Amino acid sequence: MPRGRLGNTDRVSDVTYAPIGATRTGELPPGYRYVRYRMLLGNGDELYRRAGDAIVTFAMHRALKPAKITTSAPRAESGVRLTIGLGPLKAPCEIVWADGDGFGYGTLPGHPAAGEEAFRVIRDAGGRVWFTVLAYSRPARPVMRAAGPLAVMFQQSYARLCGRALKRICTVKS
To answer: Cβ distance 54 to 140 under 8 Å?
Structure first.
């Protein structure tokens, strides 16, 4: 299957979907299920910096319990491999784009879905800091097909858990 390319995705290997990088542009491809999630974290430059750092160093993902994440590098950058595990379920992924505000990863063979998911922190014109998740996916394995609409509910719950974990990590103690 030909792979789409966007930006700095030259190191991406054998992801199981196309086009690559659509979570960076927001131009999501047809034929997928979509997840859009946004959570207000607060205000300020320090919060924005801390939140971006917690995302790109995988601290946010590592704070999720009982999920377990393993990574091939300490920071998100194109080509870094990671696996998110929850009990016997393993979800291998590869970073397809990254910057100081977040990253997007794509699914690899063995992942229950085929698609891409991005975790990012943004600031709006009023200085508010938001955590966002943008994803497109479709079932790739029988477990995901059997889950049907529950799979999307699981993805939305995962996004909320990530947001809560990020807020806990970035809360400044007075």
So the answer is: no
Q: Which amino acid is at 168?
A: R
Count of other CB atoms within 10 angstroms of residue 87:
8
Cis status of the peptide bond prior to 142, with omega within 30 of 0: no
Calculate the alpha carbon distances from 7 to 55, 56, 81, 132, 164 in Å.
20, 18, 18, 20, 30
> Coil, strand, or helix at residue 133?
strand
Per-residue pLDDT of the chain in tens (174 residues, 90 and over written 9):
233 334 444 455 689 999 999 999 999 999 999 999 999 999 999 999 999 999 999 999 999 988 899 999 999 999 999 999 988 888 999 999 999 999 999 999 998 889 999 999 999 999 999 999 999 998 877 777 677 777 778 888 889 999 999 999 998 554
Collapsing DSSP to helix, strand or coil, 19 comes out as coil
Q: Which domains does the chain have, with CATH numbers?
A: 1-17+54-174 (3.30.530.20)
Contact 45, 64 (CB under 8 A): no
Calculate the alpha carbon distances from 104 to 8, 20, 78, 112, 114 in Å: 12, 10, 9, 17, 14
Q: What is the pTM of this model?
A: 0.87
The letter for the amino acid at 94 is E
